[in-house]
Specification:
Layout lengths: L10 H10 L10 H4 L7 E6 L3 E3 L7 E7 L1 E8 L2 E9 L3 E2 L13 E4 L3 E8 H10 L1 H28 L7 H5 L3
Antiparallel strand pairs: 1-8, 2-7, 3-6, 3-8, 4-5, 4-7
Length: about 170
């Protein structure tokens, strides 16, 4: 049944909804729930080789790639080991959902230029505190994401047995 009082969204807002719904952390949210994040999405432009953040930096924002490519890497001795090259529609810096965390990898733009949406942690927390149902949906998506990461680690470990001590992953609980 048609509800004449239901909020209607314009074409620009619909584009945001379509974009955000492709991001794992936001895929379970309704348009009304996604609308709460839009005012806090700041578009930032980066140039090639510009660092978005370094490992050890405070986790103060979630990043979503609108355009371009970003390399995620970890520090290994005097160099870096690439974890992933991610492109449009992917997010990174997801440990910003946890208060008081630091970045565990580096993020650097590798395309000629990139456009990234930045959602500050303080605004994310404000939404999650005021809307526990949104927090539940995002945390469920994060659990699915980390389950996939763990599955990938085990799969890789089985195919390259012995390159690291798998028990150390679980023995170092805080």
């Amino acid at each position: 049944m048609f509800n004449p009082f239901k909020k209607r969204y314009n074409a620009e807002e619909q584009e945001y909804f379509n974009f955000l719904s492709q991001i794992k952390q936001f895929e379970k949210l309704t348009n009304d729930e996604l609308a709460l994040f839009i005012p806090y999405m700041y578009l930032r432009k980066y140039k090639q080789n510009e660092v978005v953040f370094f490992s050890g930096d405070p986790s103060h924002a979630l990043y979503i790639i609108k355009d371009g490519r970003v390399s995620l890497s970890i520090d290994i001795k005097d160099g870096f080991e690439q974890l992933s090259n991610i492109t449009m529609g992917h997010s990174f810096g997801d440990n910003t959902f946890l208060d008081g965390t630091k970045r565990i990898y580096n993020a650097m733009v590798t395309s000629e230029q990139a456009e990234l949406y930045v959602i500050p942690q303080i605004n994310i927390f404000e939404i999650l505190i005021n809307h526990p149902e949104i927090k539940g949906k995002i945390m469920a998506s994060m659990a699915e994401l980390y389950n996939q990461y763990t599955s990938n680690i085990f799969k890789e470990y089985r195919s390259n047995f012995g390159f690291f001590q798998l028990s150390s992953v679980y023995d170092n609980n805080p």
